[in-house]
Write a structure and sequence with these properties.
CATH class of the largest domain: Mainly Beta
Number of strands: 12
Largest sheet: 5 strands, mixed
Strand order of the largest sheet: 8-9-10-11-12
CATH superfamily of the largest domain: Immunoglobulins
Structural class: alpha+beta
Length: about 230
C-alpha cells in the first residue's frame, strides 16, 4: 500500500512538472506572426559522426525576421521513399534577429535523407524597442566608438582594419539604472558582417557590462540582436 501511494505521488508530480514546463499551445498566433514563420529558416547538414549506430544530423535554425522568435519546431527525417528514420523537437527560446542556433538529431544512417519540419502551436514573436527604458550615455558612447576605432578600425589605416569596420556608421551606449546596452548603426546588409559587429561589441567592450547589443541599418530597421 505504501509503495502504491509513493508511485501515485511520483506520477502526479511528473504530470505537474510536465504541464508546468509545456508551452502554452492555446494561444492563437496573429496573421502577422504566422507570416513571419517564413523568415525562420530551418536547414540541416548530414554529419559523419555516429553514436550508438545513429548518424548525426545538425539542424540549424536562423531568425531572418524583424522580431525575436520563441517556439518549438518538430523535425522529421525520412528516406526518399517516405520511410521514417528519426525525429525530434527543437525548443527555441528568445532567438534574436539575425541569430542562428543549432541542434543535433541522431537518425538511422542513410544515403538518401530528406527533412521536413513544422512549428508547434504556441510560438511567438516579440518586438524589440531599441531605446526602451534608457537614455544615451555620451561618455560611454564615445568610449565605445574609440575602442572599436583603435582595436578593429586600424587606427584609421584601412590595411589594418577589419573588413566589416567601415560599415559601422554610429555606435551608442544606452543606460537605464545599472543596465547598459549598445546600438550600432551600419550600412551593410551582409549578415556575417552584421553578426560580427554585434558580437564584437557585446563581448569585447569592457567599460561597463553590456546586457544587450542591437544592430540596425540607417533607416532604423533591426538587423541583429543578442543578449547575455
Amino acid at each position: 500500500m505504501e509503495k502504491a501511494a509513493i508511485l501515485f505521488f511520483v506520477l502526479i508530480l511528473s504530470v505537474v512538472l510536465l504541464t508546468g514546463c509545456a508551452r502554452d499551445t492555446t494561444q492563437e498566433a496573429t496573421p502577422q506572426d504566422e507570416a513571419l514563420l517564413e523568415d525562420i529558416e530551418v536547414t540541416f547538414t548530414a554529419d559523419a559522426l555516429m553514436s550508438d549506430g545513429k548518424q548525426r544530423m545538425i539542424v540549424y535554425v536562423e531568425n531572418k525576421s524583424s522580431k525575436v522568435f520563441t517556439g518549438d519546431i518538430h523535425v522529421d527525417f525520412e528516406e526518399s521513399d517516405g520511410k521514417a528514420i528519426g525525429w525530434d523537437m527543437i525548443i527555441v527560446e528568445e532567438l534574436g534577429i539575425g541569430q542562428q542556433t543549432w541542434a543535433n538529431i541522431f537518425v538511422t544512417p542513410s544515403y538518401d535523407i530528406t527533412m521536413t519540419y513544422r512549428f508547434a502551436r504556441g510560438y511567438s514573436f516579440k518586438e524589440i524597442d531599441i531605446k526602451a527604458g534608457g537614455t544615451a550615455d555620451k561618455v560611454l558612447s564615445a568610449s565605445l566608438t574609440q575602442f572599436m576605432f583603435e582595436n578593429f578600425g586600424g587606427m584609421g589605416d584601412p590595411s589594418f582594419a577589419t573588413s566589416w569596420y567601415p560599415s559601422i556608421k554610429r555606435m551608442e551606449v544606452f543606460a537605464s539604472d545599472d543596465i547598459y546596452y549598445a546600438v550600432a548603426t551600419v550600412s551593410t546588409t551582409d549578415q556575417t558582417s552584421i553578426s560580427r559587429i554585434g558580437n564584437t561589441i557585446l563581448v569585447n567592450f569592457g567599460d561597463v557590462e553590456l546586457t544587450k547589443v542591437v544592430v540596425k541599418d540607417e533607416s532604423g530597421k533591426l538587423l541583429f540582436t543578442k543578449q547575455k
